[in-house]
Design a protein that fits this description.
12 helices, MetI-like fold, globular, 2 domains, single chain
């Protein structure tokens, strides 16, 4: 008698068991993600592009400065001129939802890991595996559980985006000067006040690096997610590759660069403004 010890021998039955016994849970998760993503995409695509682009540029200029407003105008205008406006907004929605969920998971867990070395030690090998496994591999179990579409793309993107944000959050809170925390304790500040008024502002520079990495990795994963029917610019890159259309692939690739630069600069500026405010 021989025993099959390959990963597929136990992974496939495990996925079958999950689909059979936790179908309702996965259906609920998929419904929530689809509702949030659908609402955001509708909001982004409802105004005509020629209205949305200057509107976003003006709002960004008023809130974050005229240079970023000009950057928003150029980046979004480029996506429109390349005839990839709808796909670009779909990608922005996918990345925004993925990054928001990744940050919501990684930041609290990173803060907890910074304060509990045993938890950090337990998480380290898990994060090593998550960052070492090729990104497209995450799509396989996600598709097996959630089928084709946008939901498995977001799930895989979250798994890929959490590790750098979590690691840098842990690092950020470990590097906070101890004397600042002791000063807050000496004046009678509550743990919550110390976290919000001392620790979080001190950690912002490192957190911005983590957010930048999370956004860029999420964009890279969204491109790969075009293989499973997630839509957006990733689907255009995939279409250009399969049809050997260099022009389409190049246009979609440049649009991804424009979206990446815009999201990175806006997130950095927003966090910096929040820190100063």
């Amino acid at each position: 008698m021989t025993f099959d010890l390959s990963p597929g021998a136990w992974l496939a039955p495990a996925v079958d068991w999950l689909n059979t016994n936790l179908h309702g849970l996965f259906a609920g998760i998929a419904a929530v993600i689809e509702a949030v993503l659908g609402g955001l995409q509708t909001a982004l695509l409802y105004p005509p592009a020629l209205v949305m682009i200057p509107l976003v540029a003006v709002v960004v200029a008023l809130l974050l400065g005229w240079r970023l407003g000009l950057l928003a105008l150029i980046a979004l205008g480029f996506c429109f001129v390349m005839d990839l406006w709808e796909q670009s907004m779909e990608t922005v929605a996918l990345v925004s939802v993925s990054v928001a969920i990744s940050v919501a998971i990684a930041v609290p867990l990173g803060i907890l890991a910074a304060r509990r070395p045993r938890l950090e030690a337990a998480l380290r090998p898990v994060l090593d595996i998550m960052q070492t496994v090729p990104p497209w591999v995450y799509l396989i179990p996600a598709v097996m559980i959630f089928s084709l579409g946008r939901v498995p793309a977001i799930i895989a993107t979250i798994v890929y985006g959490v590790p750098p944000m979590l690691r840098l959050t842990t690092l950020a809170f470990r590097e906070i000067r101890r004397d600042l925390i002791e000063l807050g304790q000496a004046i009678g500040a509550t743990p919550r006040a110390i976290l919000l008024k001392i620790e979080l502002p001190s950690a912002i520079p490192t957190l911005m690096v983590g957010l930048n990495q999370c956004i860029l990795l999420s964009l890279a994963m969204v491109v790969l997610a075009g293989l499973v029917g997630a839509g957006g610019l990733g689907a255009e890159v995939t279409r250009g590759l399969t049809r050997m259309e260099m022009g389409l692939g190049l246009r979609a690739g440049l649009a991804i660069v424009a979206v990446a630069i815009l999201l990175d600069r806006l997130s950095r500026a927003a966090l910096e403004r929040g820190r100063k405010g």
